[in-house]
Amino acid sequence: MSTNTTGRVASGATDRARRVQGPVRGGLDLGGTKIEAIAVDRRNRVLGSARRPTPTSGGPADVAAELARAVSEACAEAGIEPHALSGVGVGSPGSVDPQTGAVANARNLPGWQDSFPLAETLSSELGTSVRVGNDVQVATDAEFKLGAGKPYRSILGVFWGTGVGGGLILDRRPWLGRGAAGEIGHTVVKSGGRRCPCGRRGCLEAYAGRGAMEARARKLAKKGKHTDLFHLMEERGRTRMTSSIWGHALELGDKLATELIDEAIEALGTGIASAVNLLDIEAVVIGGGLGVRFGAPMVKRIAEAMTPHLFNDWRPPAVHVAALGDLGGALGAALLVPRGARKTVDAGSTRRDD
Predict the structure, then answer these.
(1) Residues 106 and 168 in one domain
(2) Is the domain of 194 the same as that of 305?
(3) What confidence category does residue 341 fall into, taking pLDDT thresholds of 50, 70 and 90?
(4) 209-246 burial, b for 16+ CB within 10 Å, e for fewer?
(5) Total of domains in the chain
(6) Measured by CB atoms within 10 angstroms of the end CB, which terminus of the chain is less buried, N or C?
(7) Residues 261 and 305 sit within 8 Å (Cβ to Cβ)
(8) 252, 250, 253: which is closest to 213 by C-alpha?
(9) What mean pLDDT value characterizes the chain?
(10) Is the pLDDT at 344 greater than 80, yes or no?
(11) How much is the pTM?
């Protein structure tokens, strides 16, 4: 059975027919533009994966249906059935109740303000237990345990995508506060500044979140500012400005895209430096759709933008790109599943080892 350097197992008839010993867990990363699903073994090797677009209309039930489809597709690639999984973990935006798996106020998702029983709904659909955690915190946990955060006792994860989310590891333990710790996207970088998608003014996300940057681009384009961003969207059949569209616009030298990204970097530098001044963490790990897409050169610029605002500028934190790439959120979600339950899985059948 062949694997590449990331540990992903090649799919095919021989893989589907293999016998997998031990627990196989599912992981779901629910983002503003895409859903990533994986099935992993006890060593966190990816046996199967699937990606689907996040619905742009409907409500929580429609999003849950897409999540279930993504898990089914990842399991099909791994050669197992969803009910064979020892459990599924979900990294979700919004306010998450880790005890019940209910999610509310997922404002980057369609129609999702009220509490919705996500864990219960998915468990019924998939036939296995489901646990839900905050999307950015589980991705930060994965980087700490498996990725760029491994050498450190304390890290701040900053995930730059549709919004700007944060996760914290302090003294080797996740810090959740009263349930809403790590909301770096809603720290204020400019008093009385731009309106954020959360409804408040001056938040980091109002300047650096992909959704807010798209809204800003539309506003400026209506005022006559030239940009190729919307042409690139149409050309690629997209309804939203994905990370790749922003990347292509920068490669083409689009002036508006460059201006908005420059503003985002300045805001990120200000907001992250303020968090570092408060917590004095050892390292910052930058991921998310934009963070991973732009990679090390952009992360270096963010680190440089932090410097003027750091109190201990003689001893700055290490700043890294998320090492787990696009799969970090899904891997972190899979880590939510307890390792106690064990199943022996044949393609298409399940037997629990007691």
Answers:
(1) no
(2) yes
(3) low
(4) bbbbbbbbbeeeeeeeeebbbbebbeeeeeeebbbebb
(5) 2
(6) C
(7) no
(8) 250
(9) 89
(10) no
(11) 0.84
